[in-house]
Design a protein that fits this description.
Distance between the termini: 40 Å
Helix content: 10-25%
Number of strands: 8
Strand content: 5-15%
Structural class: alpha+beta
Strand order of the largest sheet: 1-8-7-6-5-4
Length: 251
């Protein structure tokens, strides 16, 4: 069987796509694991802070069984594998709030509980660390399973904040995604009739001199025509921002 590819740098982790899409928790779980669950001794061995046999944070044995594809997820070794990251288990409530914050127990929102960390233990040392994600409720996705090198763990531990780590590894929240500028803007005159109609309705309702609103009636529908040397901006007109109505992308 082929061994999972090992990630050695933050750019490799970012390229892997692991845990990047909201509301996934994998990257946050990895940050917690690297900073709070292990340390390096004087011989550069990774040692666990919490004995996984005690079951803290829902550490439990991972049975590296043969899956339905006929292969095992991880290499066969004469060491115990432990798993962590299943947010639906009671002991996982002890994980930090930033790991748990986007978890949704609704089965329709399974993406908030897909990722796991699996590691092998040799006495009081952590031998290998892997990240993976479920392909369904029973099996893991072998193509989305990666080894995490000691060098990468060291890099993660040196970062000052979780936010810095998430930014460098490509994670984005739902809000950040929705605020991204669209790649395509429609031609300026597409909404001209709609905008000009709104202006005319305002003029008729308020019974004001239409000449004051000539620039709006002759604009491309996305705002007034303003000369470059005008000192006062007309953008305060009704606090109207018609360009907000077209910030969508039709796929």
């Amino acid at each position: 069987m082929s061994k999972p590819k090992t990630l050695n740098e933050l750019k490799h982790l970012k390229k892997s796509g692991f845990g990047q899409r909201y509301p996934r928790h994998g990257l946050k779980l990895l940050y917690w694991f690297a900073n709070d669950c292990l340390y390096f001794d004087e011989y550069n061995n990774m040692r666990w802070q919490y004995d996984p046999e005690e079951g803290d944070f829902d550490f439990h044995l991972f049975r590296n069984r043969t899956e339905r594809n006929g292969e095992k997820l991880l290499p066969d070794v004469d060491l115990d594998y432990y798993e962590v990251g299943n947010l639906s288990r009671p002991e996982a409530d002890d994980l930090p709030d930033y790991v748990l914050e986007d978890y949704n127990q609704n089965p329709d929102h399974c993406e908030s509980n897909m990722e796991r960390i699996i590691f092998s233990v040799d006495d009081e040392c952590i031998d290998r660390v892997y990240v993976t994600e479920h392909s369904d409720q029973a099996d893991f996705n072998k193509e989305a399973t990666f080894g995490i090198s000691r060098g990468l763990i060291t890099i993660i531990r040196r970062l000052r904040t979780l936010e810095d780590f998430l930014e460098k590894t490509g994670y984005y929240t739902e809000e950040e995604d929705s605020n991204q500028e669209p790649e395509y803007w429609p031609p300026q005159n597409v909404f001209a009739p709609v905008f000009q109609g709104v202006v005319r309705q305002f003029i008729d309702h308020q019974q004001v001199d239409s000449s004051e609103f000539y620039p709006y009636l002759n604009s491309g529908g996305l705002g007034p025509v303003v000369e470059e040397d005008d000192e006062e901006s007309d953008s305060s007109f009704l606090n109207y921002e018609p360009n907000n109505c077209c910030k969508c992308i039709i796929l």
